[in-house]
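2024-03-11 09:14:02 INFO queue: dequeued item Prefoldin subunit 4, len=123
2024-03-11 09:14:02 INFO validating residues
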Amino acid sequence: MEQIPVLAQDQHNLNEFSVLHSRRAVQELELKDIKSQVEDIVDAKNECELLDEDDGDQIPLIKIGDAFFQVPLDTLNEELEESESRLEKQSEQLESHMETDHSRIQELKNLLYAKFHDQINLD
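2024-03-11 09:14:37 INFO prediction written
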């Protein structure tokens, strides 16, 4: 089989593919973590719906920095809503970046496979 020369542009494309592929793996882990946090917040919100202000000793503590504080139930619900909203926004941004990266990965795969055929494995 004939050896195909690897040009500087080919090496650049391979390096870009490698970086994007590695970044995608990290992003998938981040997205999984964010979705887990959102699920935890939804669970906490559901638990708070079962409580009322008279259950003062049963209201969960809220973590601010490294400390935990007892806050009114309304404040706790507001904090949970804000946290959920912030995480949802992060999730959407991350998914958008992942889609962009995936498109570029596919472009690079097509380009590199067109040149190197079965002499390269990008999977």
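2024-03-11 09:14:37 INFO annotate: Strands lie at 62-64, 67-69.
2024-03-11 09:14:38 INFO item closed
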